[in-house]
Design brief:
- The protein has 252 residues and is of the alpha+beta class.
- The chain has a domain at 110-214: 2-Layer Sandwich (Pseudouridine synthase), CATH 3.30.2350.
- It contains five helices and 14 strands.
- Strand 9 (156-163) and strand 10 form a beta hairpin.
- It is globular and about 55 Å long.
């Protein structure tokens, strides 16, 4: 989970269709005077998407009050990752949450379907440095030695929730927020995420086609601007739940 890039000025309002407004409003899973949390579907870019399709950042104009700014993204999720994404409704809330995230006070929990079967050991930590590698307009992350000049520290904790002979459902907790971190770390222990063609993930599991990257941001805990800690959860999306059922993996 990464912070969105800083912008120098508030972008101009975006005109949205009634269907787009209805869509983004249907994604809301929590709201109070300070924050707005949504359950982002897979396939929707958080920010900076290409083409004519609006990004989630642009769809947030559906919540803007007349003459006021729209909610601000506090972090991003990869386009093909579903789950909890947090926005701030005011500048003070954005500043507070941004500082809290940079101080590593956010706790993120993901779920992923991997193959083949459970990792060995079934729970543990992957702490392997990563580096960015670009090919044309595409960017990748690669594992690398700690002394590589472009190495970035990266740490992921994982545990197996359920498994069978050919797949497993894992719970993932990243301690750092590098691009594609979970995807590359799991591939590095020979358990790539299903549907992740970029990093070697299977496109079918147990004869069941996988429709997309099987990675879901299921929960987010963070300090709230009014005090205390909030935990927001997003239910497993139907497409991922259908794959779990089809391949016989139980979801706790």
């Amino acid at each position: 989970m990464r912070p969105p890039p800083k912008t120098k000025a508030e972008p101009k309002p975006v005109t949205l269709s009634p269907d787009e407004i209805a869509l983004v409003r249907s994604l809301v899973i929590y709201e109070d005077p300070h924050i707005l949390a949504l359950n982002k579907p897979a396939g929707l870019s958080s920010q900076g998407g290409r083409g004519q399709v609006h990004t989630l950042d642009e769809l947030l104009w559906a919540f803007a009050k007349p003459g006021k700014a729209r909610p601000r993204l506090i972090h991003r999720l990869d386009r093909d990752t579903s789950g909890v994404i947090l926005t701030a409704k005011t500048k003070p809330a954005a500043g507070f949450l941004g500082k809290a995230m940079m101080a590593h006070r956010f706790s993120k929990t993901y779920r992923a379907i991997v193959t083949p079967g459970a990792p060995d050991p079934t729970g543990g930590t992957v702490e392997v440095p990563l580096r960015r590698d670009e090919s044309g307009r595409e960017a990748f992350m690669r594992v690398c030695p700690p002394d590589h000049p472009d190495a970035e520290t990266a740490k992921t904790r994982y545990r197996t929730l359920s498994s069978n002979a050919f797949a497993a459902l894992l719970e993932l907790s990243p301690d750092t927020g590098r691009m594609h971190q979970l995807r590359v770390h799991l591939a590095s222990i020979m358990r790539p995420i299903s549907g992740d063609a970029r990093y070697g993930g299977a496109l079918a599991v147990g004869g069941q086609p996988v429709p997309r990257l099987m990675l879901h941001a299921g929960a987010l805990s963070f300090p709230h601007p009014e005090g205390g800690t909030r935990r927001i959860e997003a239910p497993t999306p139907p497409d991922m739940a259908a794959v779990l059922t089809a391949i016989g993996l139980a979801e706790p």
